[in-house]
Write a structure and sequence with these properties.
By secondary structure, this protein is mainly α. The protein has 3 domains: about 1-155, no CATH class; about 170-295, no CATH class; about 305-350. About 40% of the residues lie in helices and about 5% in strands. The chain is built from 14 helices and 6 strands. The chain has helices at about 1-5, 10-20, 35-45, 45-50, 95-100, 170-180, 195-210, 215-225, 245-255, 260-270, 275-280, 285-290, 305-315, 325-330; strands at about 80, 85, 115, 120, 185, 190-195. The strands form 3 sheets. It has a two-stranded antiparallel sheet with strand order 1-2. Strands 3-4 form a two-stranded antiparallel ribbon. It has a two-stranded antiparallel sheet with strand order 5-6. Helix 6 packs across helix 9 (about 245-255). It starts with a helix and ends in a 23-residue tail after the last helix. The chain binds zinc ion (2 copies). One zinc ion (ZN) binds near residues 132 and 153. The site of one zinc ion has 8 residues, from loops. Pfam families: TniQ.
Length: about 350
Amino acid sequence: MAVKNFTIPSSFLNLYFGNYQSVFNGDFDWNREDFVKALSQRVGFKKERVWNLTLKSYEGYLFEAQKKFNSNKPFINPVGFRGGRNRRHGLRFCPYCLREEEYFRKEWRLTFSTACVKHKVFLLDRCPECGEPLTIQKWKPDKFHFHCWKCGFEFMNAKAEEVPKESKGIEAIRLLYEILKKGYFEFEDRVYYSIAYFKVLEHFTKVVYNWQKRNWGSIRIEEENIGVRLDKKKKRLYYDAPIKVQYILFTVITDILSSKENLEKFIVDNKLKKTELTRDFRDYPFWYKKFVDKYSDKGYAPTLREIEEAVKYLRKRGLKINWINLRKITGRFLDSRKRRDVNFFFDEKQIQG
Ligand SMILES: [Zn+2]
Ligand SMILES: [Zn+2]
């Protein structure tokens, strides 16, 4: 057993992690200090090395550290472990990578890992034989390679579909890996922490995917390239989208965020309001703040037309039509004493300064 363990350390790790199902709620790519310690003692790896194999190592780079253990993190595909196996397709693989070195790469759990940057194929997120989500810690005793727990298909024997050469998606994934690895990114000749990039990247999955702000040339181009359309499911989150939809989504968003010019063009072409640019951020990153804050120039008062739009928006959402909300929505300063022209939008009771 031990010899095999060291020739295929990953299967050992996976088998080993499998024993910890109950402790880790079934998502063995996550980790806890005591577990890492136990594993490093048992296998003889340095603690840092074991740690580095877990998704927890993305903390501080991809998302913020949290004291409370919680496996719902941005860009980590949920596996939906229940009753001894994964119910969701959160685990992916490249069969050609498995043939070269048989272990499951940590980055295959990331939502933007939709294709293999080395072999330029789409990753697979299910058993090609029976369609079952992967549960690689469920191991049949007669097997030596990773296989489907249900039908026994060995994943390294799968075929994967090539990514069309015209597509920019592989470059996009490479860029995201690079930012994650380096821990910083550059924007307008300045350097910022990677986490500040990923926060905005996540926000833009909402902007493009859920709010359907899709006035952007490369969306059409990539939809053509891949032969799939970004669908119109408003409520589904980006990590529940099919893998090719995710591929297009991240290709497009990295393109939008690639320069000041692009970001500006996207905002203008889609008539994005400041609230839409900043909503849901607890505190929005500095590089981005610097950029979007100009959309709330206090010296510039909104036109009646813009206020009309804002009122429509509030009504649609069932929100109160008052000064506070109007200021929020337009992202601009509105002086209640000077803007009597706005009054007629309000219900009598709601007129407040
Ligand atoms: Zn590969
Ligand atoms: Zn199968």
